[in-house]
């Protein structure tokens, strides 16, 4: 089984690209979706213990948690120590299920693949990218996003240029959906050689 690591900085089109892999029949483990599930389940009491007042009715309030950690490297490390092992365990279950099924290719959608030293977990890396102005426009259009929050997130991420240098495959999303879909199909074609 080939494990593709899908990554890209905020606003680059990673979620849309992940959906394209799904449409091509490739199972995708989405780390962000796993975090959402965990925030409404087993991670909630752990996060409330670490960051009191960030959980409401058994579910992590993402806005309150963001207030508690953004711009605070120690708080971010504390949060990562809680959530990263749970997300990894979730991904490991996904991989094992697909190994047992004989799935030829799977995708691990890992937003911070390079930043958190996850390169060793995958066979090949797909980096999703777009021009900086397109990225900025996409991110600032998100509800609750500010210039300050965007800059704070970018500061935690490996620069796009560096990610592209380390990629096995690149999907450019700034040229429209069909261009990106063609790139996804070409990646899968190359892997089947």
From TrEMBL:
Listed InterPro entries: Depp_CoAkinase, P-loop_NTPase
Q: Which Pfam family, any one of them, does this sequence belong to?
A: CoaE
Location in the cell reads: Cytoplasm
What domain of life?
Bacteria
One Gene Ontology cellular component: cytoplasm
Q: Which SUPFAM superfamilies match?
A: P-loop containing nucleoside triphosphate hydrolases (SSF52540)
- Gene3D superfamilies named in the record: P-loop containing nucleotide triphosphate hydrolases
Q: Mostly located where? A: cytoplasm
Per its database record, what is this protein's job?
Answer: Catalyzes the phosphorylation of the 3'-hydroxyl group of dephosphocoenzyme A to form coenzyme A.
Q: Which family does it belong to?
A: Belongs to the CoaE family.
> Could you identify this protein by its name?
Dephospho-CoA kinase
**Lineage summary:** Bacteria, Pseudomonadati, Pseudomonadota, Alphaproteobacteria, Hyphomicrobiales
């Amino acid at each position: 089984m080939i494990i593709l690591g899908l990554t890209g900085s905020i606003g680059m089109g990673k979620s849309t690209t992940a959906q394209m892999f799904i449409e091509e029949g490739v199972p995708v483990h989405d780390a962000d979706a796993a975090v959402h599930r965990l925030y409404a389940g087993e991670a909630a009491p752990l996060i409330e213990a670490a960051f009191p007042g960030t959980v409401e009715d058994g579910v992590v309030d993402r806005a309150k948690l963001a207030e508690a950690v953004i711009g605070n490297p120690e708080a971010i490390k504390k949060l990562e120590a809680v959530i990263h092992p749970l997300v990894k365990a979730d991904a490991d279950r996904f991989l094992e299920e697909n190994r047992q099924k004989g799935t030829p290719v799977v995708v691990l959608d890992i937003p911070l693949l390079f930043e958190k030293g996850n390169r060793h977990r995958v066979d090949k890396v797909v980096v999703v990218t777009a021009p900086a102005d397109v990225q900025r426009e996409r991110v600032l259009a998100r509800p609750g996003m500010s210039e300050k929050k965007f800059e704070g997130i970018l500061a935690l991420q490996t620069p796009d240029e560096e990610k592209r240098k380390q990629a096995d495959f690149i999907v450019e999303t700034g040229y429209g959906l069909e261009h990106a879909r063609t790139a996804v199909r070409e990646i899968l074609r190359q892997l089947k050689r």
